[in-house]
Write a structure and sequence with these properties.
CATH class: Alpha Beta
Number of strands: 4
Largest sheet: 4 strands, parallel
Structural class: alpha/beta
Strand order of the largest sheet: 3-2-1-4
Order of helices and strands: EHEHEHHEHHH
Strand content: 5-15%
Radius of gyration: 16 Å
Length: 181
């Protein structure tokens, strides 16, 4: 089965790749993350993924849009609810790419993170699949999260400190300093 794996970052993807290949999937990675900010963060995550993809012989498609302005415009009216918009942006594009590329299904490395809203992710991916007319391959990769992070450290991968958007970075610092906006 040909599967398009949307990848948020290499540290989250490494175990997803292993699990899916272990299940017999013929994988292609897909980089599309217009939510990641600042530009230096975007570039660090993308470049780390490029290097890792080469080492594991993973074909990689890139929609290389640094989307600061479109992302901020899309979430500005509801910053606390931004994750739903972010999931839609990435998963609907992954489904579109899967359909256009003749893949049998798509999924995302986002399903490994215990920090994401798993139910909302799954519901969004299912809607994206229906809209594009390509199956969504559901896997709960969360049991592999710690192992994947440990492997990322062993391999010297760049490991980010926040989800990706500038608002999640802000929240990271607000939690550390206990400042309430």
């Amino acid at each position: 089965m040909k599967v398009l794996l949307h990848i948020c970052c290499a540290p989250c993807a490494n175990m997803c790749i292993d699990v899916l290949r272990g299940d017999g999937a013929e994988l292609t990675g897909f980089w599309y993350n217009p939510n990641i900010h600042l530009f230096t963060e975007y570039r660090a995550r993308r470049n780390c993924l490029r290097e890792y993809a080469q080492t594991v012989e993973l074909p990689l498609l890139e929609r290389n849009d640094y989307g600061l302005r479109p992302f901020v415009r899309a979430v500005a009216a509801d910053i606390p609810g931004r994750c739903a918009v972010c999931y839609e942006m990435r998963l609907f594009e992954a489904a579109r790419q899967a359909k256009e590329g003749g893949f049998d299904a798509f999924t995302s490395s986002l399903f490994i993170s215990p920090y994401q809203n798993h139910d909302l992710l799954r519901e969004t991916a299912q809607r994206a699949a229906e809209a594009a007319g390509v199956p969504f391959l559901y896997r709960d990769f969360r049991p592999y999260f710690r192992e994947g992070q440990a492997r990322a450290r062993e391999l010297g991968m760049y490991i980010q400190k926040y989800c990706g958007c500038v608002f999640s970075e802000e929240e990271r610092y607000l939690k550390k300093s206990k400042i309430i906006p």
